Amino acid sequence: MSARALWYATATKRSAQNTLYLQCTVKPGVNKNREGITSVDDEAVEICVAAQAREGEANKAVIKVLSDVLDLPKSALQITQGLKSRTKTVAAVGSWVNSGEEECLRRAREYLDKAVNTS
Question: Residue 13: which residues within 8 A CB-CB, separation 6 or more?
């Protein structure tokens, strides 16, 4: 079974909100001019950040990049797996994420694809 770059989970007793999950591969320490979403495929969203991978700086930069790209507040994003790894799972909640699975996935993919084309 292969990983998915984007998937959606509806609210449950454990998680009170609908959640969009993004499987990300992070490249820290890149030139500031290359920072952003560099590719999106079926397996992962590739993100380059200028911050170094120490003391959580790259993780903060990943949240900032995704916040800007997905038009969500930073408080709506959380790294749920991979805090000390280049492979991370990021959860997004609130705002347009609650628009239903099909619409949410379409909109997320649209935002991510647009970010790749403009970087």
Answer: none
